[in-house]
Design brief:
54% of the residues lie in helices and 16% in strands. It has 341 residues and is α/β, with parallel strands linked by helices. The protein has 3 domains: 99 residues, Ribonuclease H-like superfamily/Ribonuclease H (Nucleotidyltransferase, domain 5, 2-Layer Sandwich); 94 residues; 130 residues, no CATH class. The protein has a 5-stranded mixed beta sheet. Strand 4, helix 2 and strand 5 form a beta-alpha-beta unit. It is globular. The two termini are 43 Å apart. The mean pLDDT is 90.
Length: 341
């Protein structure tokens, strides 16, 4: 068996070929000549590569020709990142060495349609955030001119049209009017494109295994179900609900010293869009579920609103885990009644 550590870049990659005896040799290949590299591979080779922008392309190119490809999570593998004396050759050798010891933290890499849909979800999320930035810009400009409007007024076409009409008689400079007209135009364009992406998400997401199961939970709509499925992937990759919560960054930080254990705030390390979606869905789900509503109130009285919201989101994530794991379809979420498919 050979252990291959690959330091992957946009136009080239450095490879350390490590044998079971520990001997090493280095090769360099251009990404445009990937076939030259593939022809040198054997069926019992194992490859390690860090999760970078073109890691998906590399894995897809070599996976059929080797025993296994390990995609390394660079955020958990700090040996390369924090080294003060690291170059491409040393990075490849480090990957090959730790691969031979089976000590590399693995990243979950989405493939095929899942990767495409995940990209659509991420793009939609960025556009929504950009639209919020533009809402804030309008609010700040108007506020500076004594107009105490509210941001939610710009969230509809009717609101934007009303704002345009007000600008016709507003006591502001022509320069500011032009700025606001441009911002309004961009918001309209974003609205159209966000709706287009959301339609794609709902259409493609409805074809995914588990979509109907999640959508049967009151509080999780079609878009949210798609987002959660793209982030979770195969639920069987997670040993239990706590592993899934850790993946979403919804577990507390733990500090241990001798016999003292301290639990802090949630780590927030993991899927940010998944965590945000769970919080939004949790706030809706507690309106329909007496169980979640009582749980929320109990935590809120004891630890405050912010912690109660996170606690409900975490509780709902546990329900999501078992819904996917056991293939549940809820017939009455309020009463927690379901059938299995």
């Amino acid at each position: 068996m050979r252990y291959l550590g690959v330091d992957l870049h946009t136009n080239m990659f450095e490879t350390c070929w490590r044998s079971e005896s520990g001997s090493e040799r280095m090769t360099t290949h251009k990404t445009t000549c990937i076939l030259d590299f593939v022809w040198k591979l054997k069926k019992d080779d194992v490859i390690a590569v860090e999760a970078t922008g073109n890691a998906l392309w590399f894995v897809d190119s070599v996976k059929a020709h080797v025993k296994k490809v390990v995609v390394v999570d660079p955020n958990k593998f700090q040996v390369i990142k924090k080294s003060t004396n690291m170059n491409d050759e040393k990075a490849a050798k480090t990957l090959a060495f730790f691969l031979s010891k089976d000590m590399l933290p693995k990243a979950r890499l989405k493939m095929g349609k899942d990767a495409e849909l995940s990209s659509v979800v991420a793009t939609r999320d960025r556009l929504v955030k950009l639209r919020t930035v533009l809402y804030n810009k309008i609010h700040n400009i108007l506020n500076a001119h004594g107009d105490k409007s509210r941001k939610k007024e710009y969230g509809t076409e009717k609101g934007l049209a009303s704002l345009e009409k007000r600008l016709e008689t507003a006591m502001i400079s022509s320069m500011t009017k032009i700025e606001l007209e441009v911002v309004i135009s961009e918001i309209r364009s974003l609205n159209v494109n966000i709706k287009k992406l959301e339609a794609c998400m709902v259409d493609e997401g409805s074809k995914m295994d588990g979509h109907a199961n999640l959508a049967s939970i009151k509080g999780i709509g079609d878009k949210a179900a798609t987002i959660l499925l793209t982030e979770i992937g195969n639920v069987n990759d997670f040993e239990d609900e706590n592993k899934l919560a850790a993946y979403f960054g919804m577990v507390p930080k733990v500090s241990r010293s001798n016999e003292t254990v301290h639990y802090g705030r949630i780590t927030r390390k993991g899927s940010k869009i998944g965590r945000t979606t769970m919080v939004q869905c949790g706030l809706i789900a507690k309106r329909y579920s007496p169980y979640l509503a009582k749980f929320y109130e109990r935590i809120r009285k004891r630890r405050g609103t912010a912690k109660a919201i996170i606690a409900v989101a975490r509780k709902l994530l546990t329900i999501v885990y078992y819904t996917l794991k056991e293939k549940r379809i809820y017939t009455d979420f309020a009463k927690y009644e379901f059938v299995t498919t």
